[in-house]
Design goal:
The structure is a homodimer. The first copy, chain A, is of the alpha+beta class. The first copy, chain A, has two domains: 282 residues, Deoxyribonuclease I, Chain A; 100 residues. Chain A contains eight helices and 13 strands. In chain A, strand 7, helix 4 and strand 8 form a beta-alpha-beta unit. In chain A, helix 1 runs parallel beside helix 2 and helix 4 packs across helix 7. At the A-B interface, strand 5, helix 4 and helix 8 of A face strand 5, helix 3 and helix 7 of B. Chains A, B: It is an enzyme of class 3 (hydrolase). Chains A, B: Pathway: Lipid metabolism; sphingolipid metabolism; Sphingolipid metabolism. Chains A, B: InterPro entries: Endo/exonu/phosph_ase_sf (IPR036691), Endo/exonuclease/phosphatase (IPR005135), Sph/SMPD2-like (IPR038772). Chains A, B: It is found in: Membrane. Chains A, B: Belongs to the neutral sphingomyelinase family.
Chain lengths: 411, 411
Amino acid sequence: MEGDPPLRLRVFDLNCWAIRYLSKRRQERVRLIGDTLRREGFDLVLLQEVWSEQDYSDLMSRLAGCYPFSHYFRSGVIGSGLCVFSRFPILDTLLYQYSLNGYPYMLQHGDWFCGKSVGLPGSRAGVGRGVTAPLLSLSLQLHAEYCREKDAYLPHRLVQAWELAQFIRHTSKAADVVLLGGDLNMHPEDVGIRLLRGWTGLRDAFAEATHFEGCKNGCTLVPDNCFTDKSELLPFPLGIRIDYILYKATSSFTVKCEELKTTTGTAPGMDVPFSDHEAVMATLHIQRQGQAVGATPGTAGLALADVVTEARTEVAVGLQAAQHQRYSSGRMAVLALLLLLLQAAAALGTLAGLGAGQPFPKLSFCLLAFLALGVLVLATGLHLFHTMEVKNLHGTKEQMWMALRALQERP
Amino acid sequence: MEGDPPLRLRVFDLNCWAIRYLSKRRQERVRLIGDTLRREGFDLVLLQEVWSEQDYSDLMSRLAGCYPFSHYFRSGVIGSGLCVFSRFPILDTLLYQYSLNGYPYMLQHGDWFCGKSVGLPGSRAGVGRGVTAPLLSLSLQLHAEYCREKDAYLPHRLVQAWELAQFIRHTSKAADVVLLGGDLNMHPEDVGIRLLRGWTGLRDAFAEATHFEGCKNGCTLVPDNCFTDKSELLPFPLGIRIDYILYKATSSFTVKCEELKTTTGTAPGMDVPFSDHEAVMATLHIQRQGQAVGATPGTAGLALADVVTEARTEVAVGLQAAQHQRYSSGRMAVLALLLLLLQAAAALGTLAGLGAGQPFPKLSFCLLAFLALGVLVLATGLHLFHTMEVKNLHGTKEQMWMALRALQERP
């Protein structure tokens, strides 16, 4: 068993930034990505932000020869943007949509419309002597960070990180190898990443790689890339690392990251980048070992409890803000309703002949009524939305509390 | 091992019909449910339609003595209505919200606002000689059926049944015993139930019970219950069975249903029912056995393929309807936009002095503009909603196709 040759798994991960009509040189880049993937022959390709189904179809027809299996995950208004190409058969898929994903009225950010999710294709990879290992790979994207100093979306991103971690804990138990690739929109030291890694036991390919080649510190948003917004990267002259390949082996397998590479501002051998993000490419060694690996040591429990507490505090802050917004929008709806009732009373009064001598200002009356109606509809919608937000934040806070209790009770 | 005494697990499941201000004699019934649960001392209690957190808190304080562990699942605008009380520690929870759940504009049905979901509390139950079995219990409710002859929600309910089945398949792998209790809003022979049972291998406690006591055919919506709508039950003089306890044992355990009971129109020994639904109570025998049980025999594969095909056809019908509605709402939005543009042109023309001799009909102009604006906003909202619906129905249809392929390739 232990002597079986290891499986060498080559994984490619990229946020493709392929937004129809908005992303620069999109079709050229998608073609370039397709050509590179075909030439390089990875085992597993996890792509994000492929928003157009046409782009996916183009990629699929281009890659059918070397990646016979693929899946496109559909969700939200625009889509999840997630797709997977694989050399191994995809046996099953599952899509989990995060309960919170920004605000529908933040049109300029648009995350809400994307239905951000985690897509899980389950497959089996051959591992020596005809034995196959259930492989669970996840492609995902979390809510973007638009302002690091005053990050209004942090609670939502933390809820997503928590839901993702819980989803992995519950779905990965029967898989021998779990592999996650995606744009987490978090820096390596951020609380969300620490929470995700701590709560699932996933390891960071960049930190574990024996050999690394690419942008310094493994950055995936770099100033050298002609598509990145230079002003956003001013506080980080080397760039930031927000795209990850994470992995873990359960039961009787071990995974080692032999090599990690990133592109460095342009596609290999070209003058145009694949995307505004750099691609991450990992070579993993998966080996069956004789004895099952024991559970994660309990020493990490205390540090993990600190991370969960930190995340829970941030979620509580978000909960307070959401409660405040729910209250404000509710109050606004009530005021608009009162105004409408007042107007209805005035109109009835006029109809009944009160103040018959004065002319009735029909136009301004109508304008005001429509304004009040508009405010009523909008404020009610907002109130319902923030009620859902409060419920979901509250639910996550409780789940985290339950996790803390379980951590404390752990021997 | 095989000689270990079996665990006798007593499970209670009830759709409580506890809607604030709407459900009749709600507080009295919730008190009654609490008293009965305390007296009977079940091991696991799965409740649905507990919409008010106050009712949950009341139940919790009433039941703290005999059910030290409980959880309330929060989601949607109103909530999921799901809660669980347990004699065993609840170690972890996960909530999965179905991607489709009716229409927000069907206010009279209201399912959309409920955030219908499946709540998964993970616990460990003691099974002989200090050995514990991971127990996965699920409490859930699917979209209601309002008209059996012309069931507009069938595709949504099938998407929910499919997502539920996929969720169970992916989360249950490490559990020794999986237990599901809830209001599935489907008759036993309906395609959704056959899909759920076939695709997960769950067994129906009613069909398997050695001893049954309660309403004929295990019905849970019966004419004898004073709260049920008699006209709805006219085609079914005995009532219908839509509340279920389903279970399966994986790995090296067996589960047998020793006894199944339902209430019969009134709470035991009282003249008032617990709810408009009857409660379902099962006594299960869980036993560890020496050898691991083999996989489900492949002979069922063909029948299962037929069920998946049938469900996929219904989803395809729903997809067509959703595509039609997406198109209609999009066209309506475009028409409203054109009307607004036409009005803007007319207003500009008047401002520029054209037709200066004629009086400008300010009031009707304003009324028409607001009407067009209202239609534009509503139609755009509908268009976005139906776009999401199309995406989710399409995604489910594809997943079902993948399942069919996997079934056909199975040896």
